[in-house]
């Protein structure tokens, strides 16, 4: 049987049921070198704290529910200890979440795209023509693309406006000018600050431009559908 002496230097608040089982919650040396050191512990700490607070449960109550000391749970929530599999299982059960939920945020670095003002990529759309500019904001691609944001600038009216249809839900927010926007059988007059949200599968597009230039933000959310 493993003795307290054999784990000298480890947490003094070890769960007595875990001593001698080989499942020991070891403290982390914050000065230890190495890339990514402590990333897993920090991810677990954030998830445990967030789920506990969302449930409205105190540290003391959760510690009792999980079967560890209050001091140990505090160390876990502050990324000061490395959990054993047994402790992780108990935490997940106490929080009523799958064990995998406690690892969210540690799998990979997430992409972010910063677009300075006026530097969005100009893209060609079905409605692209002289006086119609489409500027793409934040071009995330691949499995992480769940939305697309475009600033549209119209400086000239057209005799015939193109109609668009696409998967997802679209939101239009008018920034400048005046525009009548059609969706299906309806027409909606928009001025600065007005917004229109609609199903992208329905035929839609500008109907009239009473005041030029017109500039609006178009955000399309695809959800699990790919554009």
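-> sequence recovered:
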């Amino acid at each position: 049987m493993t003795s307290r002496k054999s784990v000298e230097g480890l947490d003094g608040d070890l769960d007595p049921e875990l001593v001698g089982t080989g499942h020991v919650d070891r403290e982390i040396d914050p000065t230890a070198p190495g890339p990514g050191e402590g990333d897993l512990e920090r991810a677990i700490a954030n998830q445990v704290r967030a789920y506990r607070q969302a449930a409205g449960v105190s540290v003391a109550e959760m510690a009792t529910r999980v079967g560890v000391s209050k001091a140990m749970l505090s160390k876990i929530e502050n990324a000061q200890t490395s959990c054993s599999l047994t402790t992780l299982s108990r935490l997940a059960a106490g929080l009523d979440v799958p064990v995998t939920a406690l690892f969210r945020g540690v799998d990979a670095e997430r992409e972010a795209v910063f677009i300075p003002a006026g530097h969005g990529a100009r893209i060609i759309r079905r409605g692209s023509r002289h006086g119609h500019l489409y500027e793409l904001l934040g071009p995330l691609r691949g499995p992480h693309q769940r939305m697309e944001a475009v600033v549209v600038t119209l400086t000239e009216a057209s005799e015939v406006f193109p109609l668009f249809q696409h998967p997802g839900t679209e939101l239009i927010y008018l920034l400048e000018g005046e525009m009548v926007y059609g969706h299906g059988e309806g027409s909606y007059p928009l001025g600065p600050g007005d917004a229109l949200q609609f199903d992208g599968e329905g035929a839609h597009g500008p109907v009239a431009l009473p005041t030029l230039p017109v500039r609006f933000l178009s955000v399309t959310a695809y959800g699990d559908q790919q554009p």
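Strands lie at 26-27, 81-82, 121-122, 132-137, 147-154, 169-183, 186-190, 195-199, 204-221.
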